[in-house]
Design brief:
The chain has nine helices and no strands. Helix 7 (95-106) runs antiparallel to helix 8. 8% of the residues are buried. It is elongated, with a radius of gyration of 27 Å. The chain is mainly α. The chain has one domain.
Length: 168
């Protein structure tokens, strides 16, 4: 769950950076706030809509995935709606989160699939690391035990590279 939250936060930061880049690109290479605003003012609504479509799409998909999408009309009709919706959200955690993300990946396509896969894989990493550690824990030998059991044979100058070390 923590890996998911961190990845979702990074995704939001990437979306924000893309929006900032769009605004900065409107003013040339050395952008001040005034220059960016002046050049964006030259864009038509449809040009601005097109320039921000990918960032908006990712923001909408991330909000939908996190369960925090509410329309402006709903908010206007009930000003306390956002606060109450925030308290009502029961977002999955642990294995349920992985199942939720897997199902969302399965039904997604295009930019939504890329975002969902990234969140799924980053959320899966701690779980797979834990499975790996549990699977191979019995194969680990404490360093001190290894040195006591095999150190003399490995450090013995009479033992050449081709010789088989007993017990290994």
């Amino acid at each position: 769950t923590q890996a998911f939250a961190a990845t979702a936060e990074r995704a939001a930061e990437v979306i924000d950076a893309e929006v900032q880049r769009i605004f900065a690109a409107g003013g040339g290479s050395s952008v001040t706030a005034g220059k960016a605003q002046a050049s964006l003012a030259d864009l038509s609504v449809s040009e601005f809509h097109e320039a921000t479509s990918l960032a908006r799409n990712h923001a909408e998909r991330l909000a939908d995935l996190l369960g925090c999408t509410t329309t402006f009309e709903e908010i206007k009709g009930a000003p306390g709606l956002l606060d109450s919706k925030w308290r009502e959200v029961e977002f999955p955690a642990g294995v349920d989160l992985l199942d939720y993300l897997y199902r969302r990946c399965d039904g997604a396509d295009g930019p939504e699939r890329v975002l969902t896969q990234r969140l799924f894989l980053c959320s899966l990493e701690p779980f797979s690391r834990q499975c790996h550690e549990a699977s191979f824990a019995h194969l680990r030998t404490n360093r001190e035990e290894f040195v006591v059991a095999h150190g003399k044979a490995c450090l013995d100058p009479s033992c050449s590279e081709g010789d088989e070390v007993s017990g290994l």
